[in-house]
Amino acid sequence: MALLIAVHGWDSESWSSRFSNLLPGHDVRCHPETTGNPAEIRYLLAWKPDSDLLASLTNLEVIFSLGAGVDHLLQTPDLPDVPIVRIVDPDLTMRMSEWIVLQVLLHHRKHRTYHAQQHQRLWQPHDQPAASAVRVGIMGLGVLGRDAATHLSRLGFQVAGWSRSPKEIDGIRSFSGADGLDDMLKRTDILVNLLPLTQDTRGLIDYRLLSKLSTDGKRHPGCDAPVLVNAGRGASQVEADIVRALDDGTLAACSLDVFETEPLPAPSPLWTHPKVYATPHVAADSDPQTLSHYVAERIQAFEAGEGLINVVDRATGY
């Protein structure tokens, strides 16, 4: 059984070595160096593969997306009509929750202010509200959103979440549907986006949406709000609108791990904006060894006659 690794921007040879050890009975190949006859490929392990490659894999059985999202595949012309399996792994989930919790706390505990004061040798405490006074809203209550919501709730934040369909999570207030999104936004001081990229979420985070966030965030001394935290998809945000919102006070600050164009272009004002934390798409930069074990286990289970899990619904985009 031939397995092809096509990972744009990653070291394909290191992936090949891992899968050769984990699946010794399989013919492990790397694109483009050792692709060989495309008709022999049964499994594709992909991250942003070339569209012409996908069209050539006429006997493909399963595609494994080596990342949390699958929009890089669903937007590809001539995508083979085979199951697409997404990565759902405890390591990836925990790394995302770590980043989300870190960013929420950086804003909540005024880290940027105190860091600037340190360089000024300025000793000046600021009013600090309790976490229980701050309302966090999470857009997206899939595996990643639910885990982040649970961790933030344990820290004492008032956490709510929004999803396309209703969800039930202990201790988390749940909203759904178009009306539900507006209701959640108006009670939110810190907005976290973990939505997948779909036709409905492309460009969703614009000035209009940001303007619906809570306007009473300063009801407690020192509680500056609202704040945006985005670790979902860069194409879900309109960066010109985010800058506008930061400049006119609609947003107090933001943390962004994803961008409309990656790497973030040098002229982007997000690099130097005083109210922005920016990281290079590393929020859930999971361990390759962990991902390799996950995919190898799924392939072995599939060949043993078990059904695939975490298969993408192409109609919804996740």
Automatic annotation (TrEMBL):
It comes from the Bacteria. GO terms for molecular function: NAD binding; oxidoreductase activity. The keyword Oxidoreductase applies. Keywords: NAD, Oxidoreductase, Pyruvate. Residues 103-283 form the D-isomer specific 2-hydroxyacid dehydrogenase NAD-binding domain. The keyword 4Fe-4S does not apply. It holds the Pfam family 2-Hacid_dh_C. This is Glyoxylate/hydroxypyruvate reductase A. It comes from Breoghania corrubedonensis.
